[in-house]
Amino acid sequence: MIENVDVALVDWSRAQFALTAIYHWIFVPLTLGLSFIIAIMETIYVRTGNEEWKRTTRFWMTLFGINFAIGVATGIILEFEFGTNWSNYSWFVGDIFGAPLAIEGILAFFLESTFIAVMFFGWNKVGKKFHLASSWLVAIGANLSALWILVANAWMQNPVGMVFNPETARNEMTNFWAVLFNPVAVDKFLHTVSSGFILASLFVLGVSSWFLLKKREELLAKRSILIAGIFGLLSSLLVVYTGDTSARTISEVQPVKFAAFEALYDGKTNAGLVAIGVLKDSEEVTKLPDSKEFAFRIEIPGFLSIMTGGNKETFVPGINDLVYGLPDSTLMAVSEKMKRGRVALNLLNDYKTARKEKDDIRAEEIKGTFKQKDFVDKYFGYFGYAFLDKPEDVVPNVPVAFYTFHLMVMLGFLFVLICCIALFLVLRGTIIKHRWFLWVSIFSVPLAYIASESGWVLAEMGRQPWIIQDLMPVSAAVSQISAGAVMTTFILFAVLFTALLTAEVSIMIRQIKTGPKH
Amino acid sequence: MKVPLIESVSKVFRFYRDGFRNMSQWGKKVWIIILVKLFIMFVILKVFFFPDILKKGFDTDEQRSEYVLDQLTKPSEAND
Question: Does residue B38 share a domain with residue B13?
């Protein structure tokens, strides 16, 4: 359908966005979680007056400061990219995407310029309680800041609370609360920030374990492990719970993505959840090109049906069912959605013609049609399908979705176990004797980053081909600029972000080796 | 009323000034990194590599709307 789409341009634009988002996300989750751990430690200091807790708080605050400073404003690059590489998308989403990002920008500015300054410059200059309040406000503010970004992202996964205006070619927000309390936004926010809490807990656990292995700062390390163990365990349980609710929501609003998570091609009742599996190219000749099948898998029988519908009898549709439809069911084939999308697109074209011919009556009539709920439900809701070439285009990269999902879930359960063992050993007072566990804790730090990034790869690549679910594919969102220019900036970003990451890691390691001030 | 306001402002100013003056070694290092990073991002990348395509290419929102409308309706024209 899109005759002039430059595949290289789309691919480079996607690669560039992915690169900047992945690098940005290296810095964010540690800020989200470590800010709360610091606030908890400082609360204990203020309540007990014990100077060792102050020293502990200040040490972790130093590492928080390094991470925050290196990561600050790396997300703004993503906004540059919206204006340059994704201009059609940026215009089409209108204020729905802009409003949450603007709130985030203002919140972040005030937070960063005031309370973080009090956190770092205010020791012995402001009252203990005011300092503590600042630390809590930094933690709450950083996480609220993440809320607005995630609300904007959730709208891309499940667009709600808006109406399309053909006159401006933009979506206009009609219900702020529907956007804010979008079920995807609620799940995504809780799941994402709690995953950041686990990452920060594992970071504290890993660094503290290094001190214990080096026989340094024993008291600080044990206390830090205790706090990180409790905070990490509670966060892990929250992640498991919100992961479950997220999966249920995705099965409703992004069923193809959900089926791709599990590499489920043919739907069934009593569908099992794959615990571990390896995919291979399908040996059977299938309608769907590049189909996969399991070379090996361990399955929990019936669990996928229970997850989605609460019982084993729930039918979980597979990718084939969602693409080609199912007779005697409410599942609509993609070919039908493409027809409906084209009805909406043709009406938009009629609007354009009416405007050119100065036929104001016809233009107003079409404008009114785009506001009608019935038209939105039946036709405009499938607008993006008009841009597809064939029904199979709605299928994301199944192996990427499958492996990132299972890697994230397996690591998530491993982190629950690590936090439990850490708590058990530190409470028994034997953690120093278990050197193997100290090493496991250190190696869990990069694993936490892998799990966290996998979650985002899954969320974004699993949504393909859509930039806005059902309304706009990435190919229609991209700006008509040269692929070479995007490639150049991709390389520039790769160099810039690698330099920043190298700087962070080297300053961080030096500070850890230096240890807390005496 | 004016005197307490001026006092408060000067207190805040002194707070930040002393904070920056007494900053630790790592603090100074990360501030250098922040400033270099912001310079690269806003002065080099934003100005030379990341223009806002629609703001740069069109003068009014009406023209921008028309352009995006044209972009979106391309497939339906091809279909006709």
Answer: yes
Structure tokens at B43: 């002065």
Rounded average pLDDT per 10-residue block, chain A, 518 residues:
67 90 91 95 94 93 89 81 88 81 75 80 87 92 87 92 90 90 93 95 96 93 95 94 91 93 91 90 79 88 89 91 85 92 92 88 90 91 92 93 95 94 94 94 96 94 92 90 86 86 86 84
SS3 A275: strand
Distance between CA atoms of A258 and A317, rounded to whole angstroms?
A: 9
Pair A66, A508: CB distance under 8 Å:
yes
Shared-domain flag, residues B40 and B78: no
A interface test, pick of B50, B61, B67, B77 with most A CB neighbours within 10 Å: B50
Look at the block and give the residue holding tokens 């890697």: A407
C-alpha distances (whole Å) from A455 to each of A210, A214, A402, B39 are 27, 34, 11, 32
Closest CB from A121, A489, A507 relative to B15: A121
Helical pair A128-157 and A95-110, crossing angle rounded to 10 deg: 170
Cα distance between residue A434 and residue A416, in whole Å: 18
Count of domains observed in chain B: 2
Look at A69 and B31 and tell me if their CB atoms are within 8 Å: yes
**Whether residue B35 is found in the same domain as residue B3:** yes
Same domain, B41 and B60: no
Q: What are the residue boundaries of the structural domains of chain A, listed by start?
A: 7-254+397-461+463-514, 259-324, 338-392
Report DSSP letters for A385-449, one per residue.
GGG-SSGGGG---HHHHHHHHHHHHHHHHHHHHHHHHHHHHHHHT-GGG-HHHHHHHHHHHHHHH
List of chain A residues whose C-beta atoms are within 8 Å of the C-beta of residue B53: 83-84, 87, 479, 481
- Integer-rounded Cα radius of gyration of chain B: 24
Shared domain for B67 and B35, answered yes or no, is no
Residue numbers in B near A476 (CB within 8 A): 71-72, 75
Domain span at residue B66 reads 51-80
Residues B31 and B64 in one domain: no
Whether residues B78 and B61 fall in one domain: yes
The continuous run of DSSP H or E covering A472 comes out as strand A472-473
| Cα A54 to Cα A391: distance, rounded to the nearest angstrom | 61
On whether the CB atoms of residues A231 and A247 are closer than 8 A, the answer is no
Pairing of strands A466-468, A292-300: unpaired
Q: Are residues B43 and B7 in the same domain?
A: yes
Of B29, B53, B75, nearest to A507 by CB-CB distance is: B29
**Is the bond leading into A465 cis (omega within 30 degrees of zero)?**
yes
C-beta atoms of A480 and B71 within 8 A: yes
